[in-house]
From TrEMBL, chains A, B:
It catalyses: N(2)-acetyl-L-ornithine + L-glutamate = N-acetyl-L-glutamate + L-ornithine; L-glutamate + acetyl-CoA = N-acetyl-L-glutamate + CoA + H(+). It comes from the Bacteria. The lineage of its organism: Bacteria, Pseudomonadati, Pseudomonadota, Alphaproteobacteria, Sneathiellales. The keyword Glycosyltransferase does not apply. InterPro entries: Arg_biosynth_ArgJ, ArgJ-like_dom_sf, ArgJ_beta_C. The gene is argJ. This is Arginine biosynthesis bifunctional protein ArgJ. The record marks 194-195 as: Cleavage. Its EC number is 2.3.1.35, 2.3.1.1. Substrate binds at residues 158, 184, 195, 282, 405, 410. It comes from Sneathiella sedimenti. It is found in: Cytoplasm. Pathway: Amino-acid biosynthesis; L-arginine biosynthesis; N(2)-acetyl-L-ornithine from L-glutamate: step 1/4; Amino-acid biosynthesis; L-arginine biosynthesis; L-ornithine and N-acetyl-L-glutamate from L-glutamate and N(2)-acetyl-L-ornithine (cyclic): step 1/1. The record marks 121-122 as: Involved in the stabilization of negative charge on the oxyanion by the formation of the oxyanion hole. PANTHER family: ARGININE BIOSYNTHESIS BIFUNCTIONAL PROTEIN ARGJ, ARGININE BIOSYNTHESIS BIFUNCTIONAL PROTEIN ARGJ, MITOCHONDRIAL. NCBIfam families: ArgJ, PRK05388.1.
Length: 410, 410
């Protein structure tokens, strides 16, 4: 039974374009979900370069181990994703599942196993019955289609209430390129489920080492600025595949002028997906944007922004539509970062609440109440010690979160 | 209207002994709470040494600034505590409140202002109407009594559902000494309220510099191992006052053999108080002890233990009486500390759940269910990289937390 769609979801899934060089297919393994597709196969043209970022969690799942191992090749020919069982903390059996899956897919796609990426999301601790995936692969190989991006986005979901997609275009030199991606995740807080997965595809031609830098940089400013409950999963993975079919002039370095538009478009896609993940946070009723300025550095600003975004007291206050700015001050203070208590200022919804270390004399709570009753909450903090700035996105903390994560028996 | 007493509270408040050299009095200021005492004055004999630890939050309240400023004198003659308004983020006015209060109390006690400690707990951002405290002080000075420890423990509460006290005795050389303390705090998660305050009194004679080391060491293993929701308040304060009336032989150094019993007793009192704070966490229905062994170092073990204790996913699972060990693995992994995924082990309630990086073959969920339905939950993790060990204490995350912190209008 599909959960109710988040009140913060975008109007609709975007028109997912064909990305030349990418084909998808989906099927049902029956390993956990009945009656819906839960395995996705994607095939990439030979020569597709790949970049990846993985969870920093020290207990990564077997698919993450594998991804890290093969990433240095810089090339990809396939991707297999399953939803329902995350293949985490599964020891040697989990490792074998990944290797057997990669081998089976490689054979069907006439590729090498070390060019096949694997991602899994779902319960931690259960092994995957490997044949439930591998037995599907031959039929999926036959079904591969460039038009199946929308289906692919849907078959990787676990407790998401909506599929998350984003599209952007750019020019590299004189050549138009397209970037399209989809992600799953309720911000890593689905019951028993790990994780946030994001797969981004482009027809641009970009060498793997440059692609990796582009992905890492955009990741720092997008997925790494989103939190729902601070619980970093064991399986977070973002992979970017560049097929080269656009045949643009290949950039020589990461700082080529020709890449400026692509960087902007990639950041736009990843930020969009990251924000959608926060919008699907369990029980979320409000989407919260935290902006921090005046910090010692950008990383420092991000730490402060995430401290606010992760504070249960801030998030419950917002759920209660309470402009409880004292809790925001507390969260800045607990971040461990430099902040000038007696010079800092705070706005909510553009209304000045505090400045120079005390409540603003102009502040009247009724002025911010209309903002607090809305679905989009904006918090602006200036900590008055430097030029560092950052955003963080999150959602509020409600009874819905408790219901989903506590009110059940396993 | 007093909230229902936590189901995890101890049977009763301990018999709070007279500590020679300490006298207390309480009164009602009316500044926020009507019909209950909310200001406490304590007086200490001349010669009382003092030690203090304060919040690491970068937005400390005015009383914390003051405490840090006067602590180097090492001597104390008085303590004034008020509940209801925390005097945090109040700028120059807040500073003046503290100074005026200290000056007024000093005059009444024939002491110097820099020997008067101030602590406040309550809403952040509101100034304190100073005269509401200072006007009470003359009467409180007349009412001072050595027997009023129990009353004192009750008048500093904010959203606590029970007063928290602890008592222990020790010998320094051949001399019996007593340590008694009380604390308030629902683990820093009371709506609008800051904080955790703890005041510990002893008749032992201990020089200030040694006393400070004893307090800091015990604090690291007690209050700093407790969390309710990771929100470190702006006003956390623990003060230890030693009147010297026991007339023990004064220890020459921190490592004197004569102090062994005192150290044990102090740790016992502070651990007891710290655990009571977790037991009074808002909405708490289960008290959780997390034990980590096998870490790279003791501080590393503590970081891991707190990552587990602060994880919303772990805490909601426990609230739901779900032995969701996968979330505990995730929390270990997100801690940032060294852990051997393929050698670690996990027990809940003494039942082995996972070992050597996978589910234990002996594990059957029904075996741990009785433990999960109880009020005391024990989690034991060995991360298999060294000898470091630590405890952390917390409570579960329930609808009660959301109700208290979100379901109201300010």
């Amino acid at each position: 039974m599909a959960p109710n769609k988040s009140p913060l979801a975008p109007e609709s899934f975007p028109d997912f374009p064909v990305i030349p060089g990418v084909r998808y297919a989906c099927g049902n393994s029956g390993m956990r979900y009945k009656g819906r597709d839960d395995v996705m196969l994607a095939e990439f043209d030979a020569g597709t370069t790949v970049a990846g970022v993985f969870t920093k969690n020290a207990m990564p799942g077997a698919p993450v181990d594998w991804g890290r191992k093969i990433l240095p090749t810089g090339l990809a020919r396939g991707l297999v994703v399953n939803a329902g069982i995350a293949n985490v903390f599964t020891g040697a059996a989990g490792k074998k599942t990944v290797e057997d899956t990669a081998t089976a897919a490689a054979q069907l796609l006439n590729a090498s196993p070390e060019h096949i990426y694997i991602a899994s999301t779902g319960v931690i601790g259960d092994p995957i019955p490997t044949e439930k995936i591998t037995s599907l692969l031959p039929r999926l190989t036959e079904d591969l289609s460039a038009d199946a991006g929308n289906s692919a986005a849907n078959c990787i979901l676990t407790t998401d209430t909506f599929a998350k997609g984003a599209v952007a275009t750019a020019k590299i030199g004189n050549t138009d390129v397209t970037i399209a991606g989809f992600a799953k995740g309720s911000g890593m807080i689905a019951p028993d489920m790990a994780t946030m997965l994001a797969f981004i595809f482009t027809d641009a031609a970009i060498p793997a080492s440059i692609l990796q830098q582009l992905l890492s940089d955009a990741n720092e400013r997008s997925f790494n600025c989103v939190t729902v409950d601070s619980d970093t999963s064991t399986s977070d993975t973002a992979l970017l595949f560049a097929t080269g079919r656009a045949q643009n002039v290949i950039p020589a370095t990461n700082s080529d002028d020709s890449l400026a538009g692509f960087k902007r478009a990639l950041l736009e896609v990843m930020t969009d997906l990251a924000q959608q993940v926060a919008r699907d946070g369990e029980g979320a009723s409000k989407f919260i944007t935290v902006k921090v300025t005046g910090a010692e550095s950008n990383p420092s600003a991000k730490t402060i922004a995430l401290a606010i975004a992760n504070s249960p007291l801030v998030k419950t206050a917002i759920a209660g539509e309470d402009a409880n700015w004292g809790r925001i001050i507390m969260a800045v203070g607990k971040s461990g970062e430099k902040a000038d208590r007696d010079k800092m200022s705070l706005k909510i919804g553009g209304i000045l609440i505090a400045e120079n270390g005390a409540r603003a004399s102009s502040y009247q709570e009724k002025d911010v109440m209309p903002h607090m009753t809305g679905k989009e909450i904006d918090i602006d903090v200036d900590v008055a010690v430097g030029d560092g700035r950052a955003f963080a996105w999150t959602c509020d903390l409600t009874h819905g979160y408790i219901e989903i994560n506590a009110d059940y028996r396993s």
